[in-house]
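Researcher: Please predict.
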Amino acid sequence: MEPTCPSVAEVALRRGRKKRPAIRAAALVGRKYIHLLEAYLADLRQCYVHPNRVLHYDDVVVVYLLAFFNTAVRSLRCIEDASQLPGVGRHLSVEAVCKSTLSEANALFDPVHLEGLIARLRQDLPDLGRQHPDLQALLEQVQLVDGSFFRLAGDVAWAFQSCRVNGKPLGSVRLNCQWSLQTGVPSGISVSGDDGLGEGTAAMAFLEPDQIYIFDSGVVSFRYLQALLACPAHLVCALHAHVNFDATASRPLSPQDQEAGVLSDTLGHLGGSNKYVPPGALLREVKVQYTDRQGKLRTLRLLTDLRDLPAHLIAALYRYRWQIELFFRWLKVSANFRHLTSHSRNGVTLSFHIAVIACLLTALHTQQSLSTYSHMLLGFVAAGQADLEDILPILQRRERTRQRDRARQAARRAAKKN
């Protein structure tokens, strides 16, 4: 039997991109959380007042928050469609958010106006940090600093330029973030493009006195260390193998230090060169042995100015740095920030500010800091597959379990000391 050729109609049906399903109001999550922002959004209405203005700053924040919580709303055109739904329209002052007008708003509305909103949300948060019993007082001062790269939708002049597999240029930006352990949410963010600013230089804008800054070797620069110590603030950071440390005195190790894998604890100064001048302050290097994911023994060099803290607690303090990595992973994997659609620096920065506001709203609503478990569950919320009310009982059960575990660990430590 001879094979039959498909008809023209059948070929036409197979060609082209699969049609995206229409956005339904019932499928959108996150609308009820806008009520938490009503008291804050009124102030944004006063920004960029003009008699001919139709789309206002508070409207932009509302539609972007809805887009954050719904994976189906990931483009300006989809936002335009979603803004016309009855359940969304009652939160807006316009009948529809036109994609061309929203694109112009991305370049016009300065994200700095959202910093006041973020600060007010942070003030309403309780202390959500989960604190090490021996570091309780210090962890209230801890700020985690790091940066991560995100891809842009196209070749953008102000972005870092790299190449795709096919050799064509690809734009990317770096999100510089400072994370507060006390509140469990970001305390400062900025966006870097092709401006030559390293992570350490970008982090200098966030410096506050009497804080403890924890960061990895990629953020370390002599300028940043000097600015940090002059603030004055404290530091705990990792050092690359090529950074010289001239030890002048060795400190004894306690049994707790040795049990934690501490190899050495020395005082001294950083070594520099004719081109790079290190800070002249007396610093401390703690070397810690650990096992990596492949089961190999590695040595971690930690630099700090905290001289009164035992070496094993310096190592325990640095372990908290993973929480900011968890936030970046949440943005890229769960919150779908792997690929940024805006082409302007202003629009990209605005998107990240919206992400921080969404992070604050979830923490404010759930009264839970972002942990490994809550990141996973909040990923379902950001993907539009669950509502915060769905995951709240699970988070509460998880927190009760963690409290029982912490109580048992505290009882074991007390019994061991006795």
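Model: The longest helix spans residues 388-417.
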